[in-house]
Design a protein that fits this description.
The structure holds two protein chains of two kinds. Chain A is of the alpha/beta class. Chain A has helices at residues 74-83, 102-109, 137-143, 158-167, 194-199, 206-223, 235-246, 283-295, 310-313, 330-341, 343-348, 352-357; strands at residues 2-11, 21-27, 30-35, 43-45, 51-54, 56-61, 86-91, 118-123, 147-149, 174-177, 190-191, 203-204, 226-229, 250-256, 300-302, 373-384, 401-412, 415-418. Chain B is an alpha/beta fold. In chain B, helix 1 (9-25) packs across helix 12, helix 6 (130-144) packs across helix 7 (162-173) and helix 6 packs across helix 12. Classes of the chains: A alpha/beta, B alpha/beta. The A-B interface holds A 186-187, 192-194, 196-203, 205, 269-270, 311, 314-319 and B 5, 75, 77, 82-84, 102-107, 109-110, 113-114, 124-128, 162, 165, 188-191, 193-194, 223-224.
């Protein structure tokens, strides 16, 4: 089957067609034509303002497979990812059992040949994500794990963090840490500030994130190696990371897409769909994050997809679980800041940058190459409701809303998905 | 009635006016009125409470409502039934109004979103305790006439206190100035952003204020250590006669109860002429009658 994408602006800094409007023809998973001519095709994709980028990559998503398949399994999760424009997702190890043996890795990778969105594995650093004893990271790496992290949990013990960084140097492995001092955040359910004070809710101070970043940067300077901070949320965090990089540290970071769109005042009526970790912060933090995206301090944008079933969310705020789904809403959130940052920069943060950080192949949009492509229309709108939501869970504050920024099609792995 | 935050000054005035009438009624030989006949009210308490529950129950009975009580010391989650299921079960028995106390901030708001019944917040964790703030400000008003420019110091554990937050909102709406005082570890980091003064020295707070609202030191709600001992607290934050006498001014003493004699307040202060602690209790019934009466007349949920 030959599929023609008509008149799409190509956003791919490593392609010679970068920023040019072209017609792209794909057959059997290969780009066979890019140009101004209109070749014959079985199917034509048209739109008002189509953009074509490399397939998007999400380096921080959680599925409940194995163990919590009722929240999200591999099928529903990868389907939601594809509908959100992602052709690759790196999954967090916080499953049951935790992803910590080569069998766990091969279970996750085994279905990749039949999926349009490929799964990549982040192996656990410590056994059962408890933060104490190492997993067999070299063996996990050999089995195909592309990075190591305790995922939603921070590596909270200083000495364990130190030795993890040292141990990974054998194969220049990447350590991903979600910075959070658990004691400073104890009982916290939202950002500590004016809003939490008025709501009588326990706060999670910016400090809890920053203290751990400061610690980790010191450790990284001591050990060498590669460190990635996941889901950062404060201006000071950015400042420290920027400085660390200036001093030659190999440190990168990402931000969750909802983090630069929503602030803590959304929690005013105790709506648990806004309960996330790191918590939604203030407008001043959002402005700093946008500046950080623009100046390159923030390398990647992630979905921080954390599906939760109703039983975990339809509860008193204290008892509700953290997290919101995110895979299908990254584009609408990016669309909200696209005027300030520009699509060219934004797209790097969901394509080349995460692949570079994870040391993955980054194939340009060029004739003869494999088609790993996401087509989107930033101006088109769509309704995000029970029908279009592909996740098994519904914990998104955007559910039921008309959203701007629509995924039109994705191509990968000799497969394609055209979103209706 | 979920909190003070969303009440207007007119709402508060109406509650006060209604409460004044009820206060007169409950001082008559026959204390009961038929206003809420045919109305069934459930007092659902997920946290231990003696006076608030008693006060609500008395208010309900004096309005001739039918009353049922449900209390559970553990949270509903620990019992295996969700809060929503518990309350829906109670409502299925044709209950018109729910008075709820719960340890989780926002629990009444959560219920209000999911069920169709009038809800009165009788204290939600460390968030609000609106009827307490109404009875406190009502008592101050009876004493001073107006709250405009009145200086009120709230002294004690501000971090774990729903009374403090509701009082701050109510006092500010009525034109009073508010200061909070206590050990720095028990004062929320960002409280000054709510336009309240912060003072760490009890003597200075007392020198500043017209009214001292002294809060109970609640060791049971502290999951982490915030101060070393009750002894040190009593020595450096307790309000006693000697301290008050040295000030050369009169201060109205209030306390939401139950009091820890000899900890945050000494007996000679609690029982003194300047203390209106028992008046607060009496006004509490009148205020709760007013709130229930007005809510029963309003068709909408909050």
């Amino acid at each position: 089957m030959r599929i023609l994408i008509r008149d799409a602006e190509i956003l791919d800094s490593i392609s010679k067609h970068h920023l040019k409007r072209k017609n792209i023809l794909i057959e059997n998973g290969i780009i066979i034509f890019i140009g101004s001519g209109i070749p014959k095709a079985d199917r034509v994709i048209k739109g008002k303002d189509l953009k074509a980028s490399k397939g998007w990559f999400d380096m921080f998503a959680w599925f409940g497979d194995p163990g919590y398949e009722f929240k999200e399994d591999l099928e529903s999760g990868t389907n939601a990812a594809a509908h959100g424009g992602f052709t690759g997702v790196a999954l967090l190890p916080n499953t049951k059992p935790v992803i910590q043996t080569k069998n766990d890795v091969s279970y996750l990778l085994s279905g990749n040949s039949r999926r349009i969105t490929e799964v990549f594995v982040i192996g656990s650093v410590t056994e059962n994500n408890l933060g104490d004893d190492f997993t067999e990271m070299i063996d996990l790496h050999t089995a195909g794990a592309i990075a190591f992290s305790d995922g939603l949990k921070p590596i909270w013990q200083t000495d364990v963090m130190l030795r993890s960084l040292q141990y990974l140097r054998k194969f220049d492995g990447l350590l991903i840490n979600k910075p959070e001092d658990l004691r400073l955040n104890m009982f916290g359910v939202m950002h500590e500030g004016k809003t939490s004070t008025g709501l009588g809710m326990r706060g999670m101070p910016r400090l809890a994130e920053e203290v751990m970043i400061a610690r980790d940067l010191q450790l990284l300077a001591y050990t060498g190696g590669k460190l990635h901070f996941a889901n950062i949320s404060t201006p000071n965090a950015l400042k420290m990371i920027r400085n660390g990089r200036k001093n030659g540290l190999r440190v990168t970071c990402d931000v969750a897409a909802h983090q630069f769109a929503l602030d803590d005042t959304r929690l005013h009526d105790f709506d648990t769909s806004y309960k996330v970790n790191p918590p939604l912060r203030e407008q001043s933090d959002i402005l700093a994050l946008i500046a950080g995206l623009k100046d390159g301090t923030i390398d990647a944008i992630v979905s921080s997809h954390q599906p939760q079933d109703e039983e975990c969310k339809k509860l008193e705020f204290d008892y509700a679980s953290f997290g919101m789904t995110g895979l299908q809403t990254v584009l609408p959130y990016m669309q909200g800041i696209s005027e300030k940052i520009g699509w060219e920069t934004l797209i790097e943060k969901v394509t080349s940058n995460p692949r570079k950080i994870l040391n993955l192949e980054d194939i340009p949009i060029q004739k003869g190459n494999k088609a790993n492509i996401t087509i989107f229309d930033p101006e088109d709108t769509w309704l995000f409701d029970e029908k279009t939501n592909m996740s098994k869970s519904e914990n998104s504050p955007l559910l039921g809303k008309e959203l701007k920024g629509k995924i039109v099609a994705v191509f990968n792995n000799k497969k394609h998905l055209i979103v209706g | 009635m979920l909190g003070i935050k969303n009440l207007t000054i007119d709402d508060i005035e109406l509650i006060f006016e209604t409460a004044s009438n009820f206060k007169e009624i409950i001082n008559r030989p026959i204390k009961k009125v038929p206003s809420l006949r045919d109305i069934t009210i459930a007092n659902v308490f997920f946290e231990s409470s003696t006076r608030t529950r008693l006060s609500f129950e008395l208010a309900e009975k004096r309005l001739s409502a039918d009353v049922i009580n449900f209390s559970s010391s553990t949270s509903s989650v620990n019992k295996g039934e969700t809060l929503l299921d518990t309350v829906n079960n109670i409502l299925a028995m044709k209950v018109d109004m729910v008075v709820i106390r719960h340890s989780s901030p926002g629990a009444p708001h959560f219920l209000a979103r999911h069920i169709n019944a009038n809800i009165v917040n009788a204290g939600d964790g460390t968030h609000e305790h609106p009827t307490q703030a109404l009875l406190d400000t009502f008592s101050m008003r009876l004493h001073f006439g107006s709250l405009k420019g009145l200086k009120v110091a709230i002294i004690g554990d501000i971090l774990h206190s729903r009374v403090a937050i509701s009082n701050i909102f109510a006092l500010q709406k009525l034109g009073a100035e508010v200061m909070v005082c206590g050990p720095n570890t028990l004062i929320p980091m960002h409280i000054s952003e709510l336009d309240v003064k912060v003072e760490l020295e009890v003597r200075k707070a007392l020198e500043w204020c017209d009214v001292a609202n002294i809060l109970r030191i609640q060791l049971e709600r502290q999951q982490i250590k915030y101060f070393p001992s009750l002894r040190e607290y009593a020595l450096y934050y307790g309000v006693n006669r000697q301290l008050l006498d040295s000030l050369n001014k009169e201060i109205l003493i209030m306390h939401p109860g139950p009091i820890n004699r000899g900890v945050e307040i000494s007996s000679d202060v609690a029982d003194s002429d300047h203390s209106i602690i028992l008046e607060q209790v009496e006004n509490g019934v009148a205020i709760r009658m007013a709130v229930l009466y007005l809510l029963a007349g309003s068709p909408s949920v909050n």
